[in-house]
């Protein structure tokens, strides 16, 4: 069973690559960013709460995020495993995920981190912002805040899983196919 954390800063290509891996490995893709945007689009109380943070480029509080993720996993039990994209983003989320998976007699098997430098990220997100219809991609200040959040709160998750030997960096610059091949090679 594969339970992959597809890791890396915003704009590193996680969503694009997740779609390829879903096809190749038949895994269930869960993106917490997509889940929040769905709630936001439907103007639910959860969406309204998340919007306060997303618009500023800040992380949504752990308690809200973890319960949303757990609900989604409960709705999509899949013996083939998961690709988690954009989760966990804090150590508290990582520990909660471990407990959820342990309750199902499984664990995180891989963390693959797409490695892309900060200036390339800013460039990519500003470009994506022209068409993505995402408020948080349209503003350079918000993009930079998301990178600060990533470096401060999210990057320690790499080291946390490195202790159990599952973390690996993957060069995140190249064509979609090249990066997809690198990821697939690291998954076997
Ligand atoms: P993303 O689409 O993954 O870039 O996420 C967009 C925004 O959703 C982030 O900037 C956060 O505000 C929020 N978000 C998504 N996933 C998480 C998470 N695991 N923890 C906290 N906030 C999150």
Assign the CATH class.
Alpha Beta
User: Average pLDDT value?
Assistant: 96
Question: What is the CATH superfamily?
Answer: P-loop containing nucleotide triphosphate hydrolases
Q: Beta-strand level of the residues, as a percent range?
A: 5-15%
List how many beta strands DSSP finds. 5
Radius of gyration: 16 Å
**Helix segment count?**
9
Short recap of the structure:
Helix content is 55%, strand content 12%. The protein is of the alpha/beta class and 188 residues long.
Please describe what this structure looks like.
The protein has one domain: P-loop containing nucleotide triphosphate hydrolases (Rossmann fold, 3-Layer(aba) Sandwich). It contains nine helices and five strands, in the order βαβαααβαβαααβα. The mean pLDDT is 96. The chain is globular and about 40 Å long. Helix content is 55%, strand content 12%. Helix 1 packs across helix 9. It is of the alpha/beta class. The protein has helices at 14-25, 32-41, 45-54, 62-75, 91-102, 118-129, 140-154, 156-162, 176-187, and strands spanning 4-7, 28-31, 82-85, 110-115, 167-171. Strands 2-3-1-4-5 form a five-stranded parallel beta sheet, with helices on both faces. The structure holds adenosine monophosphate. Adenosine monophosphate is lined by residues 10, 32-33, 36, 53-54, 57-60, 65, 86-87, 89, 93, 136, 146.
